[in-house]
Each structure stands twice: as C-alpha cells, then as structure tokens.
What we know:
The protein has helices spanning 6-27, 33-39, 46-61.
Amino acid sequence: MQDYNVGIVGLCEKAFRRRTIQKLTETYMTQSLLEIARAVDVEPTDAGLHELEQEVADMVSTSSVNV
C-alpha cells in the first residue's frame, strides 16, 4: 500500500487464477466447478462457486479457454 502497488497485486492475482484455469482446460477436457475451485483456491461456498462460474463463463465467451 505504501508503494501504491495494491492494484497491480490484485491484477496479478486475477491473471494467475485465469492462467491456472487455462492450464486445467489444456490438461483436462472436463472439470467440475468444484475441482476448478480447489485448484485456484476458491472457497467452495455458493458465493465463491458463483463468482468462479461467472469468471469461467467470461473466459469461454472471450475464447480465453477452448471448450
């Protein structure tokens, strides 16, 4: 916070999570949402899974992952 890098840290965390999802889809054609949540350290709560589902859907719609 002192160096004003909090925003960049947040962007890096999001990019890392998306890259992990991309790697999973390169390795395995189908993964359950719960398995993806475990791999990217998302809490398996309704809210956490909903957020992850939205992120994966966004990645699919922008062709960030191939299905």
